Amino acid sequence: MTQHFIVIGNPIAHSKSPQIHQVFAAQIGIDIGYQRQYCPDDTASFTAVVEAFFHGGGIGANVTVPFKQMAYDCSLTRGGLSEHAKVAGAVNTLLLNKDLLEAGLPIAEALYGDNTDGQGLINHITRLGWPLNGARVAIIGAGGAARGVILPLIQAGIGQLTLANRTMSKATDLVSELSNASPTINQHPINTCTTADLTGHFDLIVNATSIGLSGDTLPLADELACHSAYDMMYGRALPFLQHFAARGAQTSDGYGMLIGQAALSFERWTGQVIDVAQAAATLKNQSA
Fold this sequence. Notes:
Elements: E1 3-9, H1 17-28, E2 32-38, H2 43-55, E3 60-63, H3 68-76, H4 83-88, E4 93-96, H5 98-102, E5 111-114, H6 117-128, E6 137-140, H7 144-155, E7 161-165, H8 168-181, H9 183-186, E8 190-194, E9 200-207, E10 224-231, H10 239-245, E11 250-252, H11 255-270, H12 276-287
Parallel strand pairs: 1-2, 1-3, 6-7, 6-9, 7-8, 9-10, 10-11
Antiparallel strand pairs: 3-4, 4-5
Helix pairs in contact: 1-11, 1-12, 6-7, 6-11
């Protein structure tokens, strides 16, 4: 029997999710249909698309820009949220809460939201062989991307965490919000500073801004260094990675994170664990 999945976004034609999930399905030997779903950018349209998909027998949905907040709000008032989704304030994975369905609630009231982005980053860093336990880590950016990875990084056992942003107040506000949302974060002090004032040597620096896609550069201090640099963006040469590669750092873009978060979504839906390294190799061969 074919299992059906979608990814909802606007725009959506560029999404690599169908290709990635077909590789997962082939790896474990199941038949799936995975479609891109364009949706007008309003709550009523998004809700209608989600409800129609699950009422039609759909198993799971990925959610991308600009609907992650809408998916969060939808799940919050219905079938619930995972801890990672609660802290991130965003949902990238929708499924049905089976306990609520078994209790007799209708599908529209049993939508459950998860966020696999942050753990996808952790899993990719682990596959790269970059140690996280006790690591001194800096994150640049205080938007949704940074928000989604702070809890998973702390859960991975990092030591010191610094959050840098162009606007200092946005960094401090984010730390305050997350500390109130999660006891785990509240128990782990987070330093804040402006991007220009970020200095010293870190084991890992993560760029959680999208500035590299425009070709612009971050105002990085000469006194800033790291052992490993990770940019959550992918698909082109990224100035952030070029900067640290020239200084001898290990570097990686975010394509492995994309595969990693997709694999976790797939596992939530099917209960099947994916060999992500094997899937990444297959996808690389397909694009060669």
